[in-house]
Amino acid sequence: MNVRLLVLATAIVLCSAEPRKYDGYKLLRITPTNENEIQMLTKLKSVIQDKVDFWKDIRATGSPVDIMVPPQMVATVLAITKEYNLIVDIVIEDIQPLIDDQMRHSREMSAKGIIIQLGSGRNKPIVWLEGGIHSREWVSPATMIYMTHELVSNYKKDTDITSMMDSLDFYIIPVFNVDGYHYTWNGDRMWRKTRSPNSGSSCVGTDPNRNWDWHWSEPGASRFPCNDAYYGSSAFSEIEVKSVTDYMASLKDIRVFIDFHAYSQMWMSTWSYTKDLPISSDYNDQINLQSKAVEALTAVYGTKYTHGTVANTIYEASGSSIDWAYGKLGIKYSYAVELRDTGLYGFTLPDRYIEPTAIETFEAVKVIAKHVM
Predict the structure, then answer these.
(1) Backbone angles phi, psi at 169, to 5 degrees
(2) pLDDT tens track for 68-127
(3) Would you give the distance in Å from CA 337 to the centre of its chain?
(4) In which band, very low, low, confident or very high, does the pLDDT at 234 lie, cut at 50, 70 and 90?
(5) Separation between Cα atoms, residue 353 and residue 266, nearest integer Å
(6) Contact 61/38 with Cβ under 8 angstroms?
(7) Phi/psi class of residue 177: alpha, beta or left (left: φ > 0; alpha: ψ in -120 to 50)?
(8) Taking all residues of the chain, what is their mean pLDDT, rounded to a whole number?
(9) In this structure, how many other beta carbons lie within 10 angstroms of the beta carbon of residue 20?
(10) Residues linked to residue 117 through DSSP beta bridges, in sequence order
């Protein structure tokens, strides 16, 4: 087995200031039950979106909307929701203790823009796995590290892993958004975007999963630099995205592309930019395989996952990684995965859930890898 580390050119912006604190911040959940409540939620968002953080955005009836609210805004938000006849549950009373717990029990990964290549290097079919494109989604990089460890340490020991490694090359990016991830440790735990400056704006960063050159700047992304879904000054404006896409385009025979996120427990395929479906033959293959992957995942601990296309499962999101991988490179099995949980902890998932999350996810990856072998 050949293991290579390929270092991407990324800039880490250091921060000497004290990390931002979230004392008294609450996570509120509103689950709309009809279209009128969807309209009221949309109206609510237009009023408060610049002062709160939508962890889970408005999707559809029955789909929870999670909003992190600062202490000075809690009374106002509750008053508005009461006026709109929206029922609110307080999911997390105080965000900061959960962040403190994560910090105490976790250690920052040292990966700096690294692609790990596992395999013989003999031009075998490729499985591409990447995590940490959104920096605050910590369970994603941790899951990537676990799967990498399993592949390396159990080669020639486990028959399934040995067979996969002999038949496929695995390319793994543990932390895609390196400077953003670094900033979640020493700046702002809830930071999502990159850390690149934006010309003409005091707001920093671009959403690296709205920056890919496939239906870039269309619905589901924002033109405003202060928005968490800001699509950037141009497609591929972010060095992380440009470096990865240039490298991917140089490779041959990538059979699988999976971009791991958190949270919501969803396994999703293209398209992201539209609710229209891919050509039927591809769509059927994509859905059938992800269904089998989810079955294998659920069989481990009983964790339930929703699956379907991104736009029909969550919302439209143009300029996404999986749309580019499928649309530009023709990688049929291109998936976006939202790992644990469904909102009890959200981005502050305690470390005791990391290993179970990684174990069950690896079982799903095995199903997909075996299929393309």
Answers:
(1) -105, 130
(2) 999 999 999 999 999 999 999 999 999 999 999 998 876 655 556 778 988 766 789 999
(3) 7
(4) very high
(5) 17
(6) yes
(7) beta
(8) 93
(9) 16
(10) 4, 171
Indicate if the alpha-carbon torsion angle 319, 320, 326, 329 is positive or negative.
positive
Q: Dihedral sign, CA of 254, 311, 62, 262?
A: positive
Distance, CA of 5 to CA of 116 (rounded, Å)? 5
Polymer length in residues for the chain: 373
Rounded to whole angstroms, how far apart are CA atoms 272 and 320? 7
Q: Is 338 a residue of the active site?
A: yes
What does the alpha-carbon distance between residue 166 and residue 50 come to, in Å, rounded to a whole number? 51
Contact partners, residue 199, CB within 8 Å, separation at least 6? 233
Supply the pLDDT for residue 12.
44
Tokens 């900033």 -> residue: 183
Instruction: Return the residue matching tokens 């892993």.
Output: 161
Is 38 exposed, middle or buried, given 0-12, 13-18 or 19+ CB atoms closer than 10 A? Answer: middle
Whether the predicted pLDDT of 191 surpasses 50: yes
Question: Residue 149 and residue 142: Cα distance in Å, rounded?
Answer: 11
Q: Flag whether pLDDT at 269 surpasses 90.
A: yes
Q: Is the pTM of this model over 0.85?
A: yes
Helix (H) or strand (E) holding 83: helix 71-83
d(C-alpha 159, C-alpha 148), whole Å: 16
Q: Tell me how many degrees the CA angle 279-268-34 measures, rounded to the nearest 5.
A: 100
Question: The tokens of 367 are what?
Answer: 């199903």
- Percentage of the chain surpassing pLDDT 90? 89
The residue among 19, 68, 18, 21 whose CA lies nearest residue 48 is: 68
* Of residues 288, 300, 292, the one with CA closest to residue 361: 300
> Exactly one of 338, 355, 360, 363 is catalytic; which is it?
338
Residue 9 pLDDT exceeds 90 = no
Q: What are the structural domains of the chain?
A: 26-93 (3.30.70.340), 106-372 (3.40.630.10)
**Helix, strand or coil for residue 245?**
helix
AA identity, residue 366: K
In tens, the pLDDT along 152-169 reads 999 999 999 999 999 999
Distance CA 43, CA 54 (A): 14
